[in-house]
Design a protein that fits this description.
Layout: E1 3-16, E2 19-29, E3 32-39, H1 44-55, E4 62-70, E5 73-82, E6 94-95, H2 99-102, E7 110-113, E8 121-122, E9 126-130, E10 146-153, H3 155-161
Antiparallel strand pairs: 1-2, 1-4, 2-3, 3-10, 4-5, 5-9, 6-8, 7-9, 7-10
């Protein structure tokens, strides 16, 4: 099921010098609103990258275009959204902030940045976890993906996208 992300708007920014704190972003979707709290303290480059797409309007009219289910437990997995492969909407990739660097994990409700063809960089496509997905965390030589926040409102809407 595809759910259109009709609008992504900056909802609330709270910053405390010298480090950025939590940034809240509301995703207005065809299934309802989702609010994510982005961890600018532990994943500053990934949060800045995501906010560059939000602030520039590059995520307007995007979709949740993929729903992945875990083998053995199909009620868990993730939904993925963003601009897909639309090169006209892409900004330069940023260095991947892996879970080994940030200490963040792919738990239920975590938002994570995809890396595209460059496993050492992050782009604009993102996933929201439905249940824990520890296989996306860094371990050994596997760099994993860049977890950078969590859903604080709207997991029911994510569940509707994960069908």
């Amino acid at each position: 099921m595809r759910i259109l992300v009709a609008l992504i708007a900056l909802f609330l920014t709270a910053a405390a010098p010298p480090e950025p704190a939590t940034v809240r972003v509301r995703l207005v979707t065809s299934a309802g609103n989702i609010v994510v709290a982005l961890d600018g303290r532990r994943a500053p480059k990934t949060v800045a990258n995501f906010l560059a797409y939000v602030d520039d309007g590059r995520l307007e009219n995007t979709q949740f275009y993929r729903s992945a289910r875990r083998k053995g437990n199909p009620s868990q997995g993730f939904v993925q959204g963003g601009i897909g492969t639309d090169a006209r909407r892409m900004l330069p990739s940023v260095p991947l902030e892996s879970t080994a660097q940030t200490g963040l994990r792919h738990l239920d409700g975590t938002i994570s940045m995809a890396h595209g063809p460059n496993p050492d960089g992050a782009n604009c496509n993102f996933s929201i976890m439905v249940g824990p997905n520890p296989g996306l965390d860094a371990r050994g030589p596997f760099k994993g993906f860049a977890a950078f926040g969590k859903v604080i409102q709207g997991m029911d809407e994510i569940g509707r996208a994960h069908v």
